[in-house]
Amino acid sequence: MKKFLPVVILVLLVPSIGWSQGFLTVASANGKVEIRPGASKTFEALTNSTRQVRVGDVIHTGPGASVVLQLPDDSYMTVNQNTSLEIRDFWSEGRVRTVVNVMLGRVRFYIEKLGGRPNPYSVQTPTALIAVRGTTFDVIVDDSKYTEVICIEGQVGVENVALNEREVILNPGRHTAVSEGQIPLTPALLSEELSPNRTLKVLKKGPKADDKNIDPRSFEQLARDNDRSSRPTDRSKSPTSGTDPNIGRAKPTLTFPE
Fold this sequence. Notes:
This protein has helices at residues 5-21, 219-225, 247-250, and strands spanning 23-30, 33-36, 44-45, 52-54, 58-61, 66-70, 76-79, 84-87, 97-110, 121-124, 128-132, 136-141, 147-153, 156-160, 163-170, 174-178, 188-189. It has a domain at 20-189: Jelly Rolls (Sandwich), CATH 2.60.120.1440. By secondary structure, it is mainly beta. Mean pLDDT is 77; it is low at 1-21, 218-231 and 234-238. The protein has 3 helices and 17 strands.
C-alpha cells in the first residue's frame, strides 16, 4: 500500500504544479501570431513548437489571425485579430489572480467555476479591472484605452483600474465601458448605446468681475451693507428705540362670539 503513496501524492499535486509554474497553454493558433518573451524586446513568430506562454510574455495577433490560450483549470480565452495582451501573474495565491492585461483589441473569455463557486480571476486593461465570477464575456480595447466589457453568461464586476470608487455588475446581455480617469458607465442592454455618466457643473464661488448683472462689490461688503447696524433708518440707533414696556401692546385682544 505504501508504494502507491508517492504516486497518489503526485496526482493530487498536478494542479498545484501547473499553478506554480505559471503558464498558459497554446491550444490553437491561426494566421500571423507573434510572441515577445518577457526577457526580450523583439517579437518572433509563434510556431507549432511554442506550446506555452509565461508571465511577462506579450502576444500579438495580426489581421485575420487568432490564438486560443488555455489555463490549467480548463478556462480559456480566444484572442481575436489585431490584439495585443500580456500574460500576468495569475497563479499567485491569497489574492484575486489577474490572468492577462489586454492592451489592445478584443478577447473573449470562457472562465470555469471552481466547485460551483466564482473563480477568483480578474482581467486588466489600461483603464479597467474586470472581476470574473465564472462566466463568458468580451473585453474590447481601442487605441484611446477606451474599454468596453460585454457580459454573455454569468456575471462580471467592472471598475476603473485606478479608481475604486465604483464597481458595476454586468448581467448577461449587458455592457459597460471605462475611459481613463472615469468610473464605469451605467450598464445598458447590448441593443442600447451607453450613456455618459451624469456630472454636475460646479461654479466657482463669488461673482464674475465682468458680469454686469451682479453688484461689483464683494459678498463681504454686501453682507455688511445688509447688517442691521449699517441701516441709516435703523431704530436701534435712536435713543428712544428699545422694547416697549407696555406689555398690553404686545398682546392683541381677541374676541370670540358667545
